[in-house]
């Protein structure tokens, strides 16, 4: 229950870091573990994960963490490719309680993989799922401001291609 409540900006930074890590050709196991731990320990709404879930994550092997990271990457790609697709997760182990503060909290005790996907879904809801986009080159990126491409390099590549097509039509 000791999860840190994330603001929209903090959730956005975490999603950007996750997407950048998944889309880079190389990343270290320690980086993957840290980002997934941040995702797992964040509180993106009124969902609180059971402390046992976080404990299972901490004691997991690197191969388990890599497998969980792959499932998160696949979920991100699936949500971009099929924007109408939702997340369906039957949760049998949820407890609803109202602490003295009066806010309703849903405490979830589930497997680590499902907890990570649940946290990702809530983080994307907080950030705005429509901001997760796919560049012309196929890479995912989080749209911030008027950004339309994953990198400046891709932007220049697309603009040059359009420029050359425009010149070819005039000759």
Cα-atom radius of gyration: 19 Å
Which outline best applies? globular
Number of helices: 6
Structural class: alpha/beta
Question: Strands of the biggest beta sheet: in what spatial order?
Answer: 3-5-4
Average pLDDT for all residues = 80
Total DSSP E strands: 7
Percent range of helical residues: 40-55%
Main β-sheet: number of strands, strand sense, barrel status?
Answer: 3 strands, mixed
> How much strand content do the residues show?
5-15%
Query: Could you name the ranges where pLDDT drops below 50 across 5 or more consecutive residues?
Result: none
What does it look like?
The mean pLDDT is 80. A hairpin with a 5-residue loop joins strand 6 (132-134) and strand 7 (140-142). With 171 residues, the protein is of the alpha/beta class. The protein has one domain (4-127). Helix content is 54%, strand content 12%. The protein is built from six helices and seven strands; from the N terminus they run E-H-H-E-E-H-H-E-E-H-E-E-H. Helix 1 runs antiparallel to helix 2 (29-41) and helix 1 packs across helix 5 (112-127).
Would you summarize the structure shown here?
The protein is an alpha/beta fold and 171 residues long. It has helices at 8-23, 29-41, 51-58, 62-81, 112-127, 152-170, and strands at residues 4-5, 42-43, 47-49, 94-97, 105-108, 132-134, 140-142.
